[in-house]
Amino acid sequence: MSTAMNFGSKSFQPRPPDKGSFPLDHFGECKSFKEKFMKCLRDNNFENALCRNESKEYLECRMERQLMAQEPLEKLGFGDLIDGKSETKTQV
């Protein structure tokens, strides 16, 4: 009866994590960037739009240390922050 639960001979096939899943920072290589980002969020009532520079720096740190896949910053939504560009528009 022990084979009663065997519904087929298919074995489990592992798959890579979904996009956005990445290794934990076990050695704290990007901890200072994370803390800076979290402080910004707390100081700004968790309005993440106000902490985009800190978020960009944190993700850059993770990519540089291979804690996440390399992605163009434009693809991550930071195209307007590259090369000193700012998301704030000047008033006319």
From TrEMBL:
Domain CHCH: 30-64
Source species, domain of life: Eukaryota
Principal subcellular localisation of the protein: cytoplasm
Pfam families in the record: CHCH
Compartments where located: Cytoplasm
Residue ranges, annotated region (Disordered): 1-23
Keyword Cytoplasm among record annotations: yes
Keyword Magnesium recorded: no
Keywords of this entry: Cytoplasm, Disulfide bond
Biased amino acid composition, Polar residues: 1-12
Family of the protein in this entry: Belongs to the COX19 family.
PANTHER family reported in the protein's UniProt record: CYTOCHROME C OXIDASE ASSEMBLY PROTEIN COX19
Protein name as it appears in the record: Cytochrome c oxidase assembly protein COX19
